[in-house]
Specification:
157 residues; alpha+beta; two-stranded antiparallel sheet
Length: 157
């Protein structure tokens, strides 16, 4: 949904599960999409969905660490001209870390049947000048958002 404002009206429902909520979530990285000296971007996200989204992010970060351990460990062994058996150590440690991250994600990420997102339920991107793109995992929420910001919606950016 393209809107001509950086402060749209969000319907008072969770962007993930659609339940009524007053809770707000502030994404961490906003420097590139926010003008200086302005309030940070916030959107409605219930505490249950915030927990499963953050658990997904932690598990995915663990996977990245595991891959880095394996790749850089093998690379270091190659540059050190180590015996072939040494190559198996970082690959094994990386594989173990990756397996633990996948297992953690399967156990820690508990979603409701109405949840529409694993990791990201709402995204905001600057499009051009004062037009922003808001993208939602839920089509229903996107329609509610479009209705709440009817006067600011841009049909052809």
């Amino acid at each position: 949904v393209y809107v001509r404002t950086d402060r749209p009206q969000f319907p008072p429902f969770c962007v993930c599960c659609g339940e009524a909520t007053d809770d707000q979530y502030t994404p961490v990285f906003q420097e590139k999409t926010r003008a200086p000296n302005t309030e940070p971007f916030r959107f409605p996200l219930c505490s249950f969905c915030r927990e499963h989204i953050l658990a997904t992010h932690r598990a995915d970060s663990g996977k990245l660490v595991a891959v880095n351990v394996a790749v850089w460990g093998v690379a270091a062994a190659m540059f050190a001209t180590a015996p072939v058996a040494v190559f198996l150590i970082p690959a094994g440690v990386g594989g173990l870390l990756y397996w633990r991250s996948v297992r953690f994600r399967n156990e820690a990420v508990q979603k409701r049947e109405t949840c529409c997102a694993d990791g990201v339920a709402c995204r905001r991107a600057w499009y051009r000048r004062d037009v922003f793109l808001y993208s939602f995992s839920s089509e229903t929420y996107a329609e509610l958002f479009r209705d709440a910001n009817r006067k600011k919606v841009v049909s052809d950016p």
